[in-house]
Predict the 3D structure of the following.
Amino acid sequence: MKYDPIKKSLGKVFNKKPFLRKIFYNLLDLLLLRAWYIKKELREWKKTISGEISILDAGSGFGQYVYFMSKLGKLWKIKGVDVKDEQIEDCNNFFTKINEQERISFGYADLTKLNEPKPYDLILCVDVMEHIEDDVKVFENFYSSLKEDGLLLISTPSDMSGNDHEHDHDEQASFVDEHVRDGYDIEDMTKKLKKAGFKRIEAKYSYGKPGQIAWKLSMKIPIVVLNVSQIFFIFLPLYYSIVYPWAFILNYIDLQGNHKEGGGLVVKAWKN
């Protein structure tokens, strides 16, 4: 099952007009449980800070989290970095069209070589670390790029890749082919962050049983069928009108739960 080609196809459709891209962002936020977790953590973090804030989205992709944060804090200055030139260009074009280019920008960055001259209050890193071999070096770069008491917020697959969730591998192929590891467990992640200099670390599992079922209903089944034929796009509205209310409830239950295991990790690490 190929995940990236489907995302690229959708991105091309929704990239034609700013209002379509906003719809695309909203759809991603609704469908992807990891977005629910990240948005919850960002809202909680907002309560602890005030004034002008500097943020780095390390692996910004389509820019959906940058867009959410831009609405969350009007005084927040946000930089998104990625390794895909087409996504960087698309994001810069979109935020220019909506007149946010003064405080929001996107550029290329190899996170293993990240060297930011001005430290950040927050570094967000969503579904990136599973792609990078030298992860400790990246964590060290994040640490040096944060202000004192700054927060690193990570969402990444856990090592429970045998489960049927958003980040899993099936018997034939991964949803994302470039993974260098199946994921992390909490002990491994904590050990590597401490090695990079972080002392205060909190980590929890996401994508428990409810989230895994929701993922299968709302994402895996459509992706499998779309890989067979993109004609299925025609039937997606009907499919989601039936399935999504159940997936929404399951995602909500997952978000409120305290999972002993799960398909993902949400990690917070402070520089202090």
User: Anything to note?
Assistant: The longest helix spans residues 236-256. The beta strands are 53-58, 76-82, 104-108, 120-126, 146-157, 200-206, 264-270. The CA atoms of residues 161 and 168 lie 5 Å apart.
